[in-house]
Amino acid sequence: MARFERELSGALGAFWKKNAEQEIEKMQTRADNGEIRTDAQGAAFWASNGKALPSDSAEILGYTTFEFDSTATADLREAQTIAFLAGYRHTPTAEERAEMQAAFGKGTTVVDCLSGQKIRI
Predict the structure, then answer these.
(1) Please, what is the end-to-end C-alpha distance for the chain in angstroms?
(2) Whole domain around residue 98: which residue ranges?
(3) CA 12 from chain center: how many Å?
(4) What one-character DSSP code corresponds to residue 23?
(5) pLDDT tens digits, one per residue of 2-21
(6) How many domains in the chain?
(7) 69 and 114: one domain?
């Protein structure tokens, strides 16, 4: 049972049950106000930026009357993450390499913590 389910069921106490109910109400209001939309596959996304709902938001949305496909939402989120990381990976410019060399020293291998790309300077 997921954390939110336990909160909503009251298994974690009255405070968390009330909080979960309030989160559902907030998400229903967002859906009713058009802040959340779906694409042709039924994936839910934020109208403001076109990004797929995070998994926790999608889980809460599942308790509202808003109709969407949770699998399509997860697929859209994954595709957007892959596209972001692919766009992030790039060959460092001469200026960036000079900055890395000044910071870490010549002959050092620097690893980009987001992309995993190893750069020998």
Answers:
(1) 48
(2) 90-121
(3) 26
(4) H
(5) 899 999 999 999 999 999 99
(6) 2
(7) no
Burial of 8 (0-12, 13-18, 19+ CB in 10 A): buried
Residues 94 and 80 in one domain: no
- Strand intervals (E) in 4-117: 36-38, 44-46, 109-111
In degrees, rounded to 5, the angle at the alpha carbon of residue 71 between the alpha carbons of residues 86 and 41 is 85
- The count of C-alpha atoms lying within 13 angstroms of the C-alpha of 104, restricted to the half-sphere facing its C-beta, is 14
Q: What is the pLDDT of residues 18-44, one digit of tens each?
A: 999 999 999 999 999 999 999 999 999
Please provide residue 45's backbone torsions phi and psi, each rounded to the nearest 5 degrees.
-145, 160
User: Taking the CB of residue 74, how many other CB atoms lie within 10 A of it?
Assistant: 15
Model confidence pTM above 0.85: no
**What is the distance, to the nearest Å, from the Cα of residue 87 to the centroid of all Cα atoms in its chain?**
16
Shared-domain flag, residues 52 and 76 = yes
Q: In terms of C-beta density within 10 A (0-12 exposed, 13-18 middle, 19 or more buried), how is residue 97 classed?
A: middle
Query: How far is residue 8 from each of residues 21, 30, 64, 114, 119, measured CA to CA in Å?
Result: 7, 19, 13, 35, 48
